[in-house]
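Preliminary data (for renewal application), zinc ion complex.
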Amino acid sequence: MLDLIIRGGQVVTPMGVGEWDVAVQGEKIVAVAAPGTLPDEGARVIDASGTIVVPGGIEPHAHISAPIMGHGDLKTAPPAEVSRAALFGGTTTLLDFAIQYPGIDIPQAIQERTTEWQGNSYADYAHHLMLLGAIPPEIFGSIHEAVEDGHPTIKIFTTNIRPPATTGEPRMVGTGHLHDLMVEIQKMNAMLLVHSEDDDMVQHMYQKLAREERTEWYNMHLVHSAESEDVSFRRVLRVAEWTGAPVYFVHVSATQGLQNILEARSNGRPVYGETLHNYCCFGAENYKEENGMKYHTYPSLKSEDDRQSLWNGIVNNGLSTMATDEYCTSWETKIAGRTVSDVTGGHNGAEARMGVTYSEGVSRRGMSLQRFVDVTSANAAKIMGLYPRKGVLAPGSDADITLIDTNFKRKLTINDFHISDYSIWEGFEADGWPVTTLLRGNVVVEGGEFKAVAGSGKFIPRKIDPAVTNRPVA
Ligand SMILES: [Zn+2]
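Predicted structure:
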């Protein structure tokens, strides 16, 4: 007997889009079938007419319960808050970071995240590893085990991001360490996530702006510039070519970054790019608004041309995922920093991700529904090793399902959000928005109500298909 049937919506699958019935039994999808062909006796039937039925979203880049740079012991919003908001926004799986700080090893870093998340999340979750600075040999030696244990994604930075006085732990992984890390990663089915900016150029600009007394936050794009992204992407790609390692560039922000990715992919290299919904919708000009640092995420917002390029990469080709770099703070914390050296990056992002991408991508730019699913769910699932358990509406997959109401057309207010005390998406003209969310067969959001059980989110171990680390397949 079936537990639940979703009927009457436009269902998006890899085989096409159609008005099909989706059948759920327990935590799994068991059938996607022609309308009325499934036995519905005893099953709950959800009327999905007027909606698009898609796989639950996957947020590949979130900082949850993470120390806020420059704010002492303060942390970003915890799993319970972020996962609740994410489910409201149709995102059912969150990936954050297990940080290997100096003095602890990788298992300790993972244990710290487990303590933070286990029993505290409404959504499913997993953790990327994050390595900082000069990676010690014993850490190199233990990456393999972590990958085998279901953590096949490793993030590094090629910059310290901030000036030495405010950076906290040194983050930058030098090119030599990057090379050796890539050699290790190439031997496993693992993915290297890179925050790629040229640290020399970044630090030079901090000093130059300080000398010229131009340190207002709205000059951030001069520090974290398109040139720096271009130079650094090229260096990372050269090392990847020497070592054969796959690369996933986080938060691509400029035309040049996208072009480098397109070029590498056209040569068959396993290179992937992510951008952020705020980079697609706002530009450096928005920094000039009163409290315009509210739009900021590192590296930085760029020009109008860059913004259009990023949409092009998402709607057509070149960028694989729409992420948010979720880094949720209060308004007070968000606007406390007023200079290029101390502004706080990030947002309450995960909740708006699916709706913004649908409204701007599908409704306004004609993006296909299958491409929408690719950039909000399927590609992240493939690249991060969750596919086909997540990221697809198909028999055997987890019944993580989101219904997007195509008749939802209005300006968003703060009441549309379920986390923090501000949103940069207040005033956004929604044209299609997630209204119903299922996580592993359970209806968790419906009719504006939150129905998830506390702590019901599960850790999901991951394994990347070798096709993903050999060729650009997502
Ligand atoms: Zn980030």
